[in-house]
Structure formats: structure tokens, C-alpha cells
Amino acid sequence: MLYPVTTPTRTVLDLSGLWRFMIEDENSPVDVTHPLPTHDDVAVPASFNDQSSQAKIRNHVGYVWYETTFNIADFLRTQRLVLRFGSATHEAWVYLNGQLMTHHKGGFTPFEVAINQALVAGENRLTVKLSNMLDYTSLPVAHYSETTDDAGHLVRHLDENFDFFNYAGLQRPVKIYTTPQSYVEDVAVVPTVDLTAHQATIQTRVTTQGDIDKVQVKLFDEDQQLVAKGSGKASQLTLTDVHLWQPLHAYLYTAQVTALRNDEVVDQYSEPFGVRKIEVTNGQFLFNGQPFYFKGFGKHEDTAIHGRGLNQPANVLDVNLMKKMGANSFRTSHYPYSEEMMRLCDRAGIVVIDEVPVVGLFESFGFDLNSTKQDQTWQVMQTATAHQQAIREMIGRDKNHACVAMWSLANEAANFEDGAYEYFKPLFDLARRLDPQQRPCTYTSIMQTTAKTDKCLSLVDVIALNRYYGWYVQTGDLKAAEKATRDELALYQRLYPNKPIMYTEYGADTIAGVHSNYGEPFSEEFQEDYYRMASRVFDDFENFVGEQLWNFADFQTKFGIQRVQGNKKGIFTRDREPKMVVRYLQRRWRAIPSLG
Ligand code: GCB
């Protein structure tokens, strides 16, 4: 799916701004043929939760309604008009002038619908019903239950299988874009690099709709100079003296695709792309032929008041802070991030592990490493269909991004239980079939899954471990934690000598401003000691290809006795002030080259 951009044949209208908002009172159904019976406002894009002064709204489980009005300039009405949601969390029913236009489930990927048929003259009314409910068929996963209150009214409950706050709403931009009636539907760009010849072959695959008899492709460099051109829906162009897209040194070309009829331009679309080669071989993750070392973070889309809503200044700051620290990468834990963030990473040279919203695929959660208990996760969870859709939509959206170096197909599933391999095998096959760039695939493994019990390691290109020695286990005992970390990595390396291993989570809750002469847990001293311990171990393992700590910043969570206003494992506070450990990590990461 293409990101909406303006071109000589297309324009984009942004519906961001103030919308009407209400939570649904299930005893008085909404009549979509009339304006919503509310005068409350909500800003879009943003989560609705933290914009409200009322706990009842912030914590609402069920349906919410959004509404706005817009006009379309007469001169645009001959064009194909497409209404596009960057995301709608988690399930949406979209009505235009009272007519149901589309429905989409899955809260972190875009969807769109052509609206010409439903437009009226003058003001148009756009109404969206959203559900923030999750269950064992959805992604992410939560336990859903219902009770009734004293008045006999339905009360819905969610117990999420994850700790981040279940922010919801229209969290990403809502846009209307135009295309001509015949148009470019999709573009896939696949670079193949010959590193010794400094040359690349760029395959483009274009799909069109309507009356198009010719497709032209032109490639431009960063100075807008034409560097190659060709024609055909499937074209293969050669770039000589190629500028590589390197971690922290981005270089973006643009593929300009023109659709023609009788040699007249019908539609044009421009897609940025980078040229780089990613391989996993002999226990190494190679970027343009050189061993790459991931330095960075697991993150969240999470800022004050915006919640999980697009916050571009925060995204820019986060990338700037990463670069300052010498970090080069992050994982989109635990859902695909906004398209705006992906485009920013393309420009900034930040390497991304792109993760589907698959978190919490376990029936019961624990850190008992000696447990041999088998739940019925793979019978209880009915997520396979949603999982396939999430993979399709993530890869469909992000396939051309230079920044995406690997797909993560799950965070912390019950991979040690019977049925896990049978569940994951078709999903890995699907991802590999769908990705035109054939990127490596992985999942991040929960501590309960060990090198000996994980049933799915044969599926992954890179072993990605989420580990909390010294925090959730051996709490505060960094000596024991160091031994456990070392022993486990040694075992993985011995059993899987050809697979690169990385940490995709490790961390300790740390309250900014809390200090301890004794390096106690929760203090800034402990956090630094913890990371020093982990670094010492990492440096001793040859196949160890990266460290992505947990978490870039403190973030909001559901309520729980382990969470005081959220998860405090950030090395920055929620408003991006550094904790003490940042200086240590900055020194370390600046001294470790990304490549080489
Ligand atoms: C994990 C999860 C992450 C949590 C983290 C924690 O294993 O993947 O979503 O936030 O632990 O801090 O407990």
C-alpha cells in the first residue's frame, strides 16, 4: 500500500484537527444518519485516553465514536478520492454521510476506501466507530470478560497479556488523497547490489488499475539527477557508482513511476528507496558485506498526552538522541510504528527491526526458568488469521523501506509449548513469500523459553533474546545474573553456532532521581551496574550481533503493583530526560563501530 504523497497527478488533504468524540453508551444506540449527539472534542491524530479529564473515558473498554465534517473542492471531484486511515485502534467501522464505507480490524496498519460514490455536495460527515477491545482472536492479545453493574448494565473488562497501556483511537493521520481514475496501485522496489562493482540492479514491480498501456520508471539520486530509466510494469535498471544506504549514513534514491495511456501521462508516484545488501551468514548479520552490530533499543510509541498518537517532534528528538549516543537501531516493539517514523528512519539511517502487533501469545506468563509446565496456548489462542493479516499488512506497507533490516514476527510467545512450531512455520513461510527483499525473520524469545526448550529456533535467521537476569530473576544480584547471562549465551552459541544472537530486551526499572550508595535496584546506580554487567558478557561472544535494551524511555502501562505510573526501564524518562546510565552507554556505543 502506497503512502499518500502529492505528485503532478495527485494531491493529499489532511483531516487532522478537532473531531467530535464520545464513548458509546450501550443503552442508547447511535444513529449514524444523524450527527453524533455530543459536543465533546478530541484531537486527531492522538490516543483519546489522555485527552480526557475523566477516568471513565480514559479507561473505557468498548466502543467510542469520532466524527468530523469536510468539503471537497469541486475541481477535485473528477478524481478518484480515497479516504485513508494511518491506523484505527483496534477495530473501525467507517461511515460517510451515514453510509457504511469500510471495516478494518488491526490497530497498527493503514486501510483505505474510495469515497466518490458516497460524497454529497457541500459538507460531508465522516463518522467512525472504534472498538478498543481485544481478546484471544485479536492482536495483541487480552483476556476479555463481561459483568453487569448494579443497574444491570453491561461492563466490559480487559486483562491485557502485555504491560503497555491499551491506548486507542485515531492515533495516526486520517487523509483523503486523490488519484486519477486510472492509477498506480502499488510499487515494489528490490535492489540487488554487486559490492565489488559498486553497481546495483533495481527491480521495480508496478501494479496499476484502469486504462494504462505503459509504465515508465525513472530513478533519481539525492541531487534530483536522473540516473537510470526504463519501462514496463516489471523493470530492471542498473545503477553504477552506487551510493549505498548505510547504517547512520543514509542515501535515498527516488523511483518515479509514471503510468501512461497513448503516451499521455495518466498518473505518477514517487517512492524513495535505499540500496543496501542484508545477509545473515556464518553467525553474522552483514550489512553491505560488513558485519553489523545492532546498538539501540526496544521502544514504544508513547508520549505524554498524545499517548500512542503520532508525535513527530518526539520522533525527531528520539532519533537525534539515538544518534548522539552512537545507537544505530531500534525494534518497533510491539507493533508497526507510524509510516512517518519509518520514513524518518529511512532518512536518518536508523536500522529498524519491524515487529507485528503479536504480543502476549501465552496462556500464563511467568519467569520460572525451571518450569516444565505446558499450557494449552496453541489450542486456546485463535490468532492465526489475525497473525497472517498482520504480516501481510506490515510487509505490504513497509516492504520498500531501506531502514527495515529484519521482520520480527512475534514478541515473547509460548514457543516452548507443543504446537508452537506448527503455529509459526506457516507464518514464517508467509513472511518470506511476501517480502520482495527477502529480509531475515525472527521473533523475540521470552525467558521461559530456553535454548533447549524453544521449538521454533530452526525458523529464525537471528536468535533474539529478551532477558532480565538481575531484574525479574536473581533480582539485584548482578554476580549471579552475570553467570546466568554468560551460561545461557554459551549454550545458545554451542547449540546454534551458525546463528547470530542478539539481545532485544534487557533492563531494570529505574526511578529517575533515586540514588543508592549500595547500588540497590530502582536506583540509577543499579541501572548503570546492570548495563555494565551485561556489556561485559556480550563482548565475550563472537556470534553476538547486537544489544537493544529495554526501553528507550519510560512508558505508560496498565495498572499493576509492579508499575508506579508506568514502566520505568527507560534510560530516558518519559519526557526524554537522561538517566545516569546514558553517559555510560554513549561512551560504549560510540566506541563500537556499527560496521566492521
Ligand atoms: C517483556 C516485554 C515488554 C515488557 C518488559 C518488562 O518481556 O516484552 O513488553 O515491558 O518485559 O519491562 O516487563
Automatic annotation (TrEMBL):
UniProt GO MF annotations: beta-glucuronidase activity; carbohydrate binding
EC number: 3.2.1.31
All residue ranges annotated as the Glycoside hydrolase family 2 catalytic domain in the record: 278-592
SUPFAM superfamilies cross-referenced by the UniProt entry: (Trans)glycosidases (SSF51445), beta-Galactosidase/glucuronidase domain (SSF49303), Galactose-binding domain-like (SSF49785)
All copies of domain Glycosyl hydrolases family 2 sugar binding, residue ranges: 14-180
Plastid keyword on record: no
The organism's place on the tree of life at top rank: Bacteria
Domain annotation Glycoside hydrolase family 2 immunoglobulin-like beta-sandwich: ranges: 183-276
Sorted UniProt keywords: Glycosidase, Hydrolase
PROSITE patterns in the record: GLYCOSYL_HYDROL_F2_1, GLYCOSYL_HYDROL_F2_2
Keyword Hydrolase: yes
GO terms under biological process: carbohydrate metabolic process; glucuronoside catabolic process
Family named by the database record: Belongs to the glycosyl hydrolase 2 family.
Protein name (database record): Beta-glucuronidase
Organism: Levilactobacillus suantsaii
